[in-house]
Specification:
The chain is α/β, with parallel strands linked by helices. It has 9 helices and 8 strands.
Amino acid sequence: MIPKLHYISEGSSPKEHIENIQKACSSGAELVLLHLKNISEKKHLKLAKEAREITSYFQTRLIIYEDFKIARAVKADGVHLDTIETSYMKARIHLYTWQIIGGTANTLQDCETLLGEQVDYITLNPFRSSATEDNLQPVLGLNGYTAIIEALKTETPIIGTGGITTKDVKNILETGVSGIGVSEEITRDFDSIKTFNKLLSASSTEEQRHTFE
């Protein structure tokens, strides 16, 4: 099972991304995504190795953004591919059999395409406008999440991302989303990881109670 909370690394520099991953792991993050863009492969590999050392120490799962070759090289837990056009088959062949692949979706059609590629999880983005992302895709909100989840009827974990705060967790989980990816709120206050984890586990306890009643 994939953890319900994903910390998506953020920072004003690549070095700060690594520092923030250290803080997130220290605060109880179970999965982090090293979210570096526009960086040379050599530097990306160096930083991915640093992230792998940190996450291994804390027994935290590490996902690498976009570069499956680096994910394999550092033996990360998986790779997250952000564009539907990416060759998922190529990534799957290149990776170790135990490494997972995630993909980003904005529409029902995107999700169906990714399920056809047999991804291990899908991030549904964006929940709302986010200051850290170029919001080129339509904002989905609770209604968008509900409509897509109801139409999909899939066992594949769907992770909501995009400007999510602790106040949103309960309502988001009620849409049927499996978990959440958070960047801004956690980077502002790494103690919020504990709050997110409590809210997420409270929800799963509630689900189990309803199932057995």
